[in-house]
Design brief:
single chain, 356 residues, alpha+beta, D-amino Acid Aminotransferase, Chain A, domain 1, 9-stranded mixed beta sheet, 7 helices, binds pyridoxal-5'-phosphate
Length: 356
């Protein structure tokens, strides 16, 4: 596909928001990227247009059968005014793995990275500059065939929207309390757990809502067959430090392969910290706690980077991790990753890409 994107700029730019009260995903920039897919023609009509509601047929497949995938990454403004993306190709590669699973046509990775860069560049004045803030980038694909039969759509839209977001930890990093879910499940092997499919989230809301009622911020999912092995947390992968070793559940089809997860593993390896990807049961965690060897626990994902876990509740058995304080290693990972993302630390891994 040729790298041409037709650009139509807005005639009425919106006022920029107050950087203190950005929150997450509530405010959108002046422009969006759209391209269409038609069977036989491929992806076409790549364009950047003023941000506006979509005009879709009510019969569009996405509304009925949920044929949709999404991604999430960020653009960061450095202290010296540069704009950095963090491993954007990884997100586009993951789109194609999600697409493949959901019968959505594949995208051209290089072109879509180029589309992100072009859109961010046009709306660069929307990248907030206050400490810890960033511009969240949300690419997604929806099936648009106006047809109620159940089959893969013949037409799609690939869209990218941008949202300035606040610092995830405006008051410093506070570990969160997590409810271990032993009734509902998120995904099973052979299902869509490894894909960033919209429907995975719809299916997870009920457990989330019930955990929230009990006072928990997130749920920790167990495997869908035995409710025994740990999978991941909400929209984050999960890591445990036990007796000096870091353990994270292995990717076996039901877990989302996080880019932050991969970055954490590479960092730990580079530091000579033992990190193991394997199945780990909730029982094993509780036994480590009894033995006094359960040292740290944290989630990893683009939004928070690192989210330490302060308490787990598994069938009424509550355990407190590291006195509900962020662990030393968790803090070091957080400082290093955010340091690289915001251009404060040297990027020895070549993870960042500058937008010029
Ligand atoms: C997006 C996501 C993650 C985190 O992935 P990152 O690439 O690190 O942001 C983890 N789990 C689920 C279910 C997700 O959707």
């Amino acid at each position: 596909m040729a790298y041409d994107i037709k650009i139509t700029k807005t005639a009425s730019p919106k006022p920029k928001p107050d950087q203190i009260s950005l929150g997450f995903g509530k405010i959108f920039t002046d422009h969006m990227f759209i391209m269409d897919y038609t069977e036989g023609k491929g992806w076409h009509d790549a364009r950047i247009v003023p941000y506006a509601p979509l005009d879709l047929d009510p019969a569009s497949a996405v509304f009925h059968y949920g044929q949709a995938i999404f991604e999430g990454l960020k653009a960061y403004r450095t202290h010296d005014g540069r704009i950095l993306l963090f491993r954007p190709r990884k997100n586009m590669e993951r789109i194609n793995r999600s697409d493949e699973r959901m019968c959505i046509p594949l995208i051209d990775i290089d072109f879509c990275v180029h589309a992100i860069k072009t859109l961010v560049s046009i709306d660069k004045d929307w990248i907030p500059t206050a400490e810890g803030t960033s511009l969240y980038i949300r690419p997604f694909i929806i099936a648009t065939d106006p047809f109620l039969g159940v089959h893969p759509s013949h037409t799609y839209k690939f869209i990218i929207i941008l949202s300035p977001v606040g610092a995830y930890y405006p008051q410093g990093i506070n570990p969160v309390d997590i409810y271990v879910e032993s009734n509902y499940v998120r995904a099973v092997k052979g299902g869509t757990g490894f894909a960033k499919a919209a429907g995975n989230y719809a299916a997870s809301l009920k457990a989330q809502a019930e955990a929230a009622q009990k006072g928990y911020v997130q749920v920790l999912w167990l495997d869908g067959v035995e409710r025994k092995y740990i999978e991941e947390v909400g929209a984050m992968n999960v890591f445990f430090k036990i007796n000096g070793e870091v353990i994270t559940p292995s990717l076996e089809g039901s877990i989302l392969p996080g880019i932050t997860r991969d970055s954490v593993i590479q960092l730990l390896n580079s530091w000579g910290v033992k990190v193991t990807e394997r199945r780990i049961s909730i029982q094993e965690l509780y036994e480590a706690y009894e033995k006094g060897t359960f040292e740290e626990a944290f989630g990893s994902g683009t939004a928070a980077v690192i989210s330490p876990i302060g308490e787990l509740n598994w069938e009424g058995r509550k355990i407190t991790i590291n006195d509900k304080k962020i662990g030393e290693l968790s803090q070091r990972i957080y400082d290093t990753l955010t340091g690289i993302q915001f251009g404060k630390l040297e990027d020895t891994f070549g993870w960042t890409e500058e937008i010029r």
